[in-house]
């Protein structure tokens, strides 16, 4: 059984009941044969649980009962990697969007700069669309491999660590399966290593 990510105290305080209560209730309901939406709707409309907690309890239940794999969301699988190796977020952003930085994390075929609405193709058969740029904070990319049946999303973000250092992270959403998730984790780990290598020159 995979333990819920939220603490027992948190769910008790927010919903008035423990994880054991909710899991037992859902077992009695036959939730293992129900869809994610049906479980969450029942918790919200019949049990009076807020929308956010209804979703959280549903996901925790699905993981605990083996209905959802690690990294699986309601929109497919998700992979995330991050690394803290720069003196501050401003330096992290500057590296990320520099010509050298783009080459490091996008690989060969990367453009010299990014702008919203831009599209380009990478040599490994990925079509990229730059959807959103929030300067100093985040890039949001449409990411469509040639053989994919839907567009994936890559979010590249910069934040400050607890000590104020610059952290760069990649979140890859809408992946089709666990194998694709592992491939994405490997890809973005290598991208972070390549970015860090630029700072050691």
UniProtKB/TrEMBL annotation:
Record's protein name: SRPBCC domain-containing protein
Naturally occurring in which organism (per UniProt): Lujinxingia vulgaris
Lineage, top ranks: Bacteria, Deltaproteobacteria, Bradymonadales, Lujinxingiaceae, Lujinxingia
């Amino acid at each position: 059984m995979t333990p819920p990510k939220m603490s027992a105290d948190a769910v008790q305080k927010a919903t008035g009941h423990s994880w054991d209560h909710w899991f037992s209730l859902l077992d009695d309901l036959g939730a293992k044969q129900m869809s994610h939406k049906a479980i969450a709707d029942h918790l919200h409309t019949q049990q009076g649980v807020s929308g956010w907690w209804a979703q959280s309890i549903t996901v925790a239940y699905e993981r605990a009962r083996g209905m959802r794999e690690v990294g699986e969301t309601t929109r497919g699988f998700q992979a995330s990697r991050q690394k803290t190796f720069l003196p501050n977020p401003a330096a992290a952003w500057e590296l990320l969007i520099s010509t050298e930085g783009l080459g490091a994390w996008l690989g060969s075929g990367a453009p010299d700069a990014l702008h919203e609405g831009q599209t380009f193709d990478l040599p490994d058969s990925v079509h990229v669309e730059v959807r959103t740029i929030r300067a100093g904070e985040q890039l949001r990319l449409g990411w469509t491999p040639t053989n994919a049946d839907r567009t994936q999303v890559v979010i590249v973000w910069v934040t400050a660590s607890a000590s104020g250092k610059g952290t760069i992270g990649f979140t890859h959403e809408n992946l089709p399966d666990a194998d694709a998730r592992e491939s994405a984790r490997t890809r973005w780990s290598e991208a972070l290593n390549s970015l860090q290598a630029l700072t050691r020159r």
